[in-house]
Design a protein that fits this description.
The protein is α+β, with helices and mostly antiparallel strands. It is 38% helix and 22% strand. It has two domains: 83 residues, no CATH class; 122 residues, Beta Barrel (OB fold (Dihydrolipoamide Acetyltransferase, E2P)), CATH 2.40.50. Helix 1 runs antiparallel to helix 2. The chain is elongated. This is Putative repeat protein (TIGR03943 family). InterPro entries: DUF1980, DUF1980_C, UPF0703_membrane_permease.
Length: 225
């Protein structure tokens, strides 16, 4: 049977992307690259690209055509990002990226009620906005329980800055949210910790976490949430 090798190569390249999206979907590694708002791209690609590749292969039957050098180069460029991604896995953003991506003067959603445990970015919002803190009744004595990583050692007396990133579209648009924790052990930066404690200080000016327990933990499967 004669084959159109130009279409066949395109089918292989498209299939490679389909397999890559399936891998990201099954392994859960998609969260390293994209946020929850664009997660649908991975599932859509995993479901549709293999079908598109099969359609290309079906159309390649019965036609004899050798691929040109230009076609070979184009298909090579198409699959190159996959190879680079697999060879050099993207690490999660850490302490070095916090200063560049720190969210200052944050526009807190004043009429958004907190549901469940108080999260780190909600503490950061309360530290920046007294109105947000008052609306959600965040202040002295509010219990907190969250996971974050150490982004800075503030002094030698058990005070750390812990941070976490929030991702909208992808890791490139991540914003860092931070909080100060007192009563913590001296831990190196980029150490992931589980923090339990209560809020102390004044919302809008100097709100901190007084820790009752700071425990080292493994990096969560989704570091951007």
């Amino acid at each position: 049977m004669r084959w159109d090798w130009t279409r066949t190569l395109r089918a292989v390249a498209i299939a490679a992307w389909g397999v890559f999206f399936i891998y990201l979907w099954v392994s859960g590694r998609a969260t390293t690259y994209i946020g929850p708002k664009t997660w649908w791209v991975v599932s859509l690609g995993a479901l549709t690209l293999p079908l598109v590749a099969l359609a290309y292969l079906w159309g390649a039957r019965g036609h004899k055509r050798a691929p040109s050098v230009r076609e070979l180069g184009a298909n090579g460029l198409l699959v190159a990002p996959i190879l680079l991604t697999l060879m050099v896995p993207a690490p999660s953003l850490g302490a070095l990226a916090v200063e560049n991506k720190r969210t200052k003067n944050v526009a807190a959603p004043l009429e958004t009620a907190i549901e469940g445990d108080v999260r780190l970015y909600e503490i950061a919002w309360a530290a920046e906005s007294k109105e947000y803190a008052d609306y959600n009744e965040l202040g002295e004595g509010t219990p907190v329980d969250f996971v974050a990583f150490v982004s800075k050692q503030l002094d030698g007396n058990g005070e750390l800055e812990v941070s976490r990133f929030m991702v909208g579209c992808c890791a490139a648009d991540a914003n860092a949210f931070s909080a100060k924790v007192t009563g913590a052990p001296n831990l190196p930066v980029d150490t992931w910790v589980h923090v339990k404690g209560t809020l102390i200080g004044t919302p809008g000016t100097d709100l901190k976490v007084s820790a009752s327990a700071v425990t080292e933990v493994a990096q969560p499967s989704n570091p951007y949430s």
